[in-house]
């Protein structure tokens, strides 16, 4: 009923805007319903290619320099996070020791910061373990074993020998400590000793993308790694080593070529239908419902109806999954990976769009990178997907209810916490309390108005504390 009412209201204004936002209760409930219904489908079909794409993207980025402060990378798929400076670097094949009994072969770069090297070493040691079950990043120190093996040199992102120039301090790299191929690292368990968190702070900056907020520390010096962004354009030395724009595009295309197969596999798993796979019952049921609502509301524009379907599943659900794999897997997603996944998500959106692609040489790289694949491969696949679904036998309400019941029984101890959902509903009710009260009064449901007022009176949260809609 909520979705039906929303459709009726939207049709009279701008039909193509239906389900594009997530402001109404109906839209929020639809998102949650899809998440619940498609959980098993992700585990069975989409999860593997999504995780494989994430791992391939992470590995490709780490094959080249990544600025620990800005997240800019030589092998980025995103122009926004592309490292534009020429950085000299060398690959190092080293050994990492853990608890004196385990030895791991690790690949690092001599331009890596100590935190970056430590993260790569932890990834090598715990490659099959979820991120939440690995040792805390700040609970171990990284040390360099002396050539004779009789001493361990502690490695830090910052120390008294860190390079300082003017108001800027450079984070230490492996080359700063003279690390070469064949060197041996060791991880030293230090627990959570107070006052020894500088490495972790630098890593949090890189991980959370907070470099712009934390570039100035207590000593008044700005931290930098590979690029100093405070250099002026008039400085000749700042211009040296800059790459021309054509090289930028070449690097983006190179990254795209490396990842192409993984992107294709992911899109294929999502838009698989008919002969090569089954469409989830929830999607078939929802698309049939949308077709029915279009007929009932006199909407005959084919593009409008397909836009509803695009907004309801691909753009509402799948885009969220592609851009946020950490919603599905127990992993860490860096800001660099996030920017690259946004490029892939844009290609996915363009594939589902019904509007004609109009590209020029001045079009953004986010549109140009996958333009050929979108036109020649992905869009025809999407059209086949929709056609196949429309030709499938309909799913009755009884069959859908039975499937929902089975899904609920399959997750009896899912640990779903109702409190956050109730809080969100309460915040929503407070935000629109006047409109809700007026609507209930108009329908003579005064008892529900009193319940709403009592709830607000007894709540420890005042309606004035509720943030406005952004």
Describe the structure.
The protein has 470 residues and is an alpha/beta fold. 50% of the residues lie in helices and 9% in strands. The chain is built from 18 helices and eight strands. The protein has helices at 2-11, 25-37, 39-62, 114-125, 198-208, 211-214, 236-239, 245-270, 281-296, 302-312, 314-323, 335-352, 365-368, 371-391, 397-410, 418-431, 433-442, 446-458, and strands at residues 91-98, 102-109, 140-145, 152-155, 164-165, 168-170, 184-189, 222-224. The strands form two sheets. The chain has a five-stranded mixed sheet, with helices on one face. Strands 5-6-8 form a three-stranded mixed sheet, with no helix packed on it. A hairpin with a 2-residue loop joins strand 5 (164-165) and strand 6. The longest helix is centred in the middle third of the chain and has 26 residues, at 245-270. Mean pLDDT is 81; it is low at 192-216 and 232-242.
Low-confidence stretches: 192-216, 232-242
SSE order: HHHEEHEEEEEHHEHHHHHHHHHHHH
* End-to-end gap: 27 Å
Q: Which overall shape is indicated by the principal axes computed on the Cα atoms?
A: globular
Major sheet details? 5 strands, mixed
Strand content: 5-15%
Strand-pairing-aware structural class? alpha/beta
Helical proportion? 40-55%
Assembly state: single chain
Number of helices: 18
What is the rounded Rg? 27 Å
Notable characteristics:
5-stranded mixed β-sheet, single chain, alpha/beta, 470 residues, 3-stranded mixed β-sheet, 9% strand
Q: How do you describe this structure in short?
A:
It contains 18 helices and eight strands. It is of the alpha/beta class. β1 and β2 form a beta hairpin.
